[in-house]
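Hi there,

I know you've been waiting on this one. I reran it after we fixed the sequence typo, so this is the corrected version. Both the input and the resulting structure follow.
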Amino acid sequence: MITDSHAHIYFDSFDSDREAVLARAREAGVTRMLLVGTNVSTSEQCFELARGAAGVFPTAGIHPHDAAEADDAARARIAELCRRDECVAVGETGLDWFKNFSPRAEQLANFRWHLELALELDKPVIVHCREAHEDVLELLREHRGVRGVMHCYTYGPEELAPYLELGLFISYSGVVTFPKNEANRAAALATPLERLLVETDCPFLAPQSRRGSRNEPAYCREVLAQLARLRGVELDELARITSDNATRLFALPT
């Protein structure tokens, strides 16, 4: 069993073959996936797609790119979705100082609100961090006790320790397969097995063999295979470990 801990298959690039995508995932051994919301509309889509779909679990949140739209009504709707029993995490949230699609002040306020909601609900938070390492750490330290995952971790081992100290899980994506990304592979090797997760972040960041094409949950197997080679363990064993980790963090059914 492989668990893709971060997927966005509600994107319109999946509209023509979504059922086939799910079938390919199952054939590749990816039997569970988290559908991660990035605003009110996509969060609602996560719940709709997960309804009645075995092994598919929704989250709700407002991505830093959409932080400028995080008004009271949007936050109220996200909070309502997050309170549902079927919601396994708060987010995707965080900070993105690379694209800055929303003003920094609004990103900071949005991230802080999600962290407070996660603490209130005692649910894990899914954290996006792009070129914002120090500021993400500062807010996480302000909210000690929050559980969660650094999704699509792209940094090296130097930035890793503070996140581990805060008790966070670390999730690796197709980025870890890129030939010139030795720093990310070093971080993956340094991540304790009990904190390790895998993801696709599809439709983005396809692994090296599919680079430049649409990513999909089936390709999570290639990420897992890279990590298994790196750590000198069997793929099936690492699939079990990372799936067990996802079960613990997100309170997923076994």
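Quick highlight: The longest strand covers residues 90-96.

Best,
R. S.
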